């Protein structure tokens, strides 16, 4: 926008949080500096008041009433420094957008150079610098050392050419703001850095020039909390710009296959795979087919359970649709490492049914809680049974005997037991919290953070934990979802028992079922470790270790049964997943790509 003389209008934004002692002086100094090189009608000064708790809003209103070149942009709640700037820039009239810190640490003699860098059209973004040669700021060590370290990390990790990313003295064109604003995700102190880095990646012309800078008063940056937060944001931006673009579905799938191949290669050093294959060929195909049908019957139960969980969160959906969503997400877990398919389910229910991402992720968390509780409970019940029968020593020997199925097998089993104990502790905590109708998330976070980062994290966790508590806090819902979980995993155990029977193992039915309960539970707890897609290798190793340690079944037979059991379950999952993708008109590749674009803060803010 231009004034009547065709001069580009300039909007100067002053981010203000509890600045009652300085804001009036800062506005007056800013107007005086602008009048020194701009026509009186060519600029505006905006006080971006960020949910202040003092008299700053009152003073800003008074200044705006006295001078029509001054505006007050108010926020009822804290948006964070970056959030307040974005809010004010959207409301600004100018084509040249300027901001600097209200403490006026940067000499306003440089304001004309900053504004003209953009108004001339030569640059899209301009920033002052305290670290350029010949004009380095004299900063106290407690502020200077972290600043230098941070800038070195940004230059190295994010390949930035700028020397000083956090100098609060910047300007950009309206077009540059429109180009960058939707991509800049941080809303606090890292906003400046992300703006500069993304501007360079977008090919915009960025100018950095030296400024005289003198620290004024105490910084509002917490040199422990905020520096740590900015470090995490740096890693987030590095991941988004440098790593994630290279992690295509094809690369993820190839990485998963490589991990499985490495695991198989290591296992071949102590397992005779020829004997395993021979055992698998002798398996009764009729019983294998029966096991496949039984496993397929467990899937509608998974959809039914997911329906009950979502219902407690306030969403009513059909069991058929949710069964398909579960099929697709579990198919994603088979081909993507680190359980990447879980986020796909949240994507499906969001896109197809409008269920917000926070509720989608919370429903997944609730489902995982019930799975872990059921698995830990089943394995614990068998342990109690062995203890009552005086055979607990056999279990201990099975978990400590590396001869049973090699080091990988018993290590996976031991880790699974640890996961089970942690799961039980976490579940007990959630259930007790739900029973007490209390949520101490915000008060706990407030002990270490009181800024917008802490508020944002508290908002996310409160909603997340609150949704999980809603499922665990209703006794009827808790019992119904729990009973369905037991039924689902009982069928899973039955499938393993049928597969073992297909190998003609010499075990009485009671022992067969009991050992399968333990082996399947421990095997699935081992799969919690996000190493290989679908937990391939982890499940087989843990299952085999338990089976060999507790029964006369040999390693070849036990491993053959574990491989066949896991394989038929994965085949049913893949077939159901492909069918569900066709029925729901969902592309796994598209879901992966679009899910990757959902950043956590944006998703959980909805």
Automatic annotation (TrEMBL):
One Gene Ontology CC term in the entry: plasma membrane
GO molecular function, one term: glycosyltransferase activity
Origin species: Halopenitus persicus
Recorded family membership: Belongs to the glycosyltransferase 2 family.
Locations listed in the record: Cell membrane
Keyword Transmembrane helix applies: yes
Domain named Glycosyltransferase 2-like: residues: 11-179
Domain of life assignment: Archaea
GO terms under biological process: protein N-linked glycosylation
Name of the protein: Glycosyltransferase 2-like domain-containing protein
Membrane-traversing stretches: 251-271, 283-301, 408-432, 486-503, 509-529, 541-564
PANTHER family, alphabetized: DOLICHYL-PHOSPHATE BETA-D-MANNOSYLTRANSFERASE, GLYCOSYL TRANSFERASE
Keywords: Cell membrane, Glycosyltransferase, Membrane, Transferase, Transmembrane, Transmembrane helix
